[in-house]
Amino acid sequence: MKCSLCRGLRPGSIRFKLVLGMLIFWLAFVLLSAVMGFYMVKRSQEELITQKQAETVSVLADELDMRLAMMHGLLIAEAKELQEEPSVLADVERAQKWLDDHQDLHSVFDNHLFIFTPEGRLFVESPFISLDRRGLDLSFREYIQKTLELKAPYLSNPYITSQAHQSPVVMFTAPVFDENGGIKAILGGSLNLFGQNGLTHIRDMKIGRNGFLVILSSDRRILLHSNPARIFTIVEPGTLPTADKVLNSHLEGTLYEPAGHDKKGYMVTVKWLKYKDWVILAHHPMEEIEESIAKYQQFILLRAVAVLLLGIVVILWLVNRFLAPLEAFAAHIRGLMAKIGKDRYFHYTGRDEISEVSSAFNSLIKELDGRYEELRKNQEIFKTLTIFSTDVIFWRDMADNLIYISPNCLGLTGYTDQEFHTYPELLIRIILPEDLHLWLGHIHGKGDAVVFRIRHKKGQILWIRHECNAILNEQGEPIGYRGNFINITSQKMAELELEEQKELLRHLIDALPVAVCLKDGEDRWLVANQQTLRLFGLPEDLDYFQMNEAELAALSAQREVLLQLKAINEEAWQHKGLWRGYEEFATADGVKHIFDVFKLPVFNEDGSRRYLIVVAVDVTDLKHTEERLRQAQKMEAVGQLAGGIAHDFNNVLMAMQGYAELLKMRLTDPFLVKFVDNILKGADRAAQLVRHLLAFSRRQQLKLEHLNLNEVITGVEPLLKKTIRDDIALQIHLASDRLPIYADRLQIEQILINLAANARDAMPNGGSLHIETGLAQLDEAYCQNYVDVTPGNYAMLSVSDTGCGMDEDVKNHIFDPFFTTKEFGKGTGLGLSIVHGIVVQHKGLINVYSEKGIGTTFKIYLPLTQEAETTQAGHTPQETRAIKGSGVILIADDEEMVREIATSVLKEAGYEVLVARDGEEAVHVFEANAQRIDLLLLDVLMPRKNGRDAYEEIKARHPHIKAVFLSGYSQDLLMNQGKLLNGYDFLSKPISPTELLQKIQAVLTKP
User: Fold this and answer.
1) What is the DSSP track for 748-769?
2) Residues with Cβ within 8 Å of residue 827, at least 6 apart in sequence
3) pTM of the full predicted structure?
């Protein structure tokens, strides 16, 4: 039977052709059914996976949107709460506590909470890190600028935090508005993208078995990736076509990423977030999709094979059972590429030649599987090393031919691995010529690692650390060399910047005008600026590091001072906190200086001493200036008191003099007239005292004119000779230059007479009085030690005597009113205080130089003027006589005695008088008698309305009205820089009846 079938199946036989034709027909039918099944299964599986992946990405995007919105909403709500509590922002500690207490915010924003000022400076942060961070300028940050620009909440683009974990973070901000709608603060919450509230829960999410998620920001930055090394890197345009298409066109949906040289590519599902311009890309490997499809196709294939085999079996059973094993083996081989694992082995239980072929085939498959697995493992290991390494790795053979360079060379050098293979000389050309010797001396594995510079393709200079090792064969012979490039640019730049900052800090503290010193716990000097070295007379090039005070004292003339500092330092260490005090000692220049010293001890965690920071500020000039200011304030206060007394006393004297002169005119008894004359003499002496008080208080009326100081001294010389005694030699040395000043001649003469009298009393046994003039220029540095003295050119007047001199205590009180060293009854103590008042009123300066037993020199500086010099003729008093007149005069004065005496004098002279008690009443009285009144007699200072305001109000309606002003002061509303205002007539109290009548008559007779 078998032999018959074999013969029938010989090639060329009809049976063979029939069997062959049936088999071909059956095979075609089965294959067509399988192909159609393959296509339908592939299409349905792709649609199912696409839909499922799209749903997953959509749910994930909605979850992220909701989470970001919820976080931002919570921060905005807290910002509104902060807006309703303005007191929180008024105090740093209260703001710190407010942030610390909001645990609900801390549970959401796991990377700190912040409050920023409107200028972009850090106000407080929680958790608290350091006081040094308060006031940190962060105005350059995007979230600060955007919040201020939009005046609205803002979610920043991710950035790498400066904190220790160095993770990508985002900043949520919410403005805090004031009542006017302006931003008074910014509340910020920082979220760690890899914290528990960030992207951690989706970072390890898989798409399929080996797929992964990628989240990109609109600025092409990777926020999430299965490869940690790629997180927060920039996707350069052209490197990922799929990312370019999504970012450029804002696409959503499913895309297919092209296959690489070793992969089949990915099915990419894209979904944009609504709350922030981030995009989620789910990568599903096409290899897995095809594998899933292949399983169904395999099932279909198996069914087709089963049907085919069934047909073959039937045919073979009908044709020849012997063909069955061969057909099965052929079918197995044809489907081998679709099989995996043990399915690729052919199982045959027969004992014929087919069994031997089957066994050989299975052995071959097993051997190939072992070699393939070993090769795959080696490829994965090498791939892992090159992908996750930041180093650029290269191999060279013994002839220096480049065998391999890792693909990440593009990021470091700008050149691709293909360019290096095409142009091997690039490996040398990118090294800077001046560093090439380092490379040449290190290649072929010689020596330790070296550092040199390379030039990036774009021109950037990078610092590289290079290591090189030989590759040996089994016999230990070198067959090549492997090396690497490590980018250490950031580290190198940091080292260079640190050195530059150290040098800058050295120049900075050396430029400080204060002494700065840093010592360790054993009082050894670590840092000292040039001012400190100069202070103690130490050489400026001294290597003082680690030297203590005792060692430095041996090198300095300030030995005792340096040794004294150690005891004071101990007091600062015991004080624990900031110690401040004043220290006075002679510096290297031999002059005693006063220093305001600050000392701050710094301790280690165990309480041991670490550093002592010392800062000493020379406040010698400041202390002297404070003393002068106190003296000036004292003189000003006493002057105001004296001026007030003089004002009230003048009103009393005016009444006394007026009534006495009226009484004298009515008396005929010479005996009684003598009594009245004595009253008038007493009133004159009292008036003279008042004028002295006014001179001291700088409230006397000045009659300013352009004078030559030299001529004033020449004119008063005869009077000076009468003031001093014959045993005192008067020597006058006048400057050859004119000394034009703008001053009151009589007051300048008063200064000379008073100083001459003071010198006379200081030389009871005779001596010399020297008067000298000259030009002087006071600069700003000199004037800043005095109050109300401006820099410029001055006329200098020096008055020196060879008398008994003064000690420091007397000099400190020499210008005080009523201060005198003379015996009781021999001096009023007003002479020098009057001189001081006159000088100050002329905007000048007076200094006194004196030593006990040697003599005294007064130096007076009066401002020079450029205006022409004039002279003023002396005034000859008019002879007192009875003056009569007529007309109506309105008197307004708040002093009743003044009103009564003025009324009596005017009525006695023939005038009709109307009276008012203040300026307001004067206006009403005038309006009621406007057509009758010929002249106004007004006191300057009155309640309700002063004399000038009353006059201006009356003059506005009656422009031709005439007026005479009275005042116990001379420096009041009618004065303008020491001169009477044009158009006003003025009398200074006390006024004699004759002076009053003469003035009124002169004003009434004016045209």
Assistant:
1) HHHHHHHHHHHHHHH-TT-EEE
2) 761, 820
3) 0.33
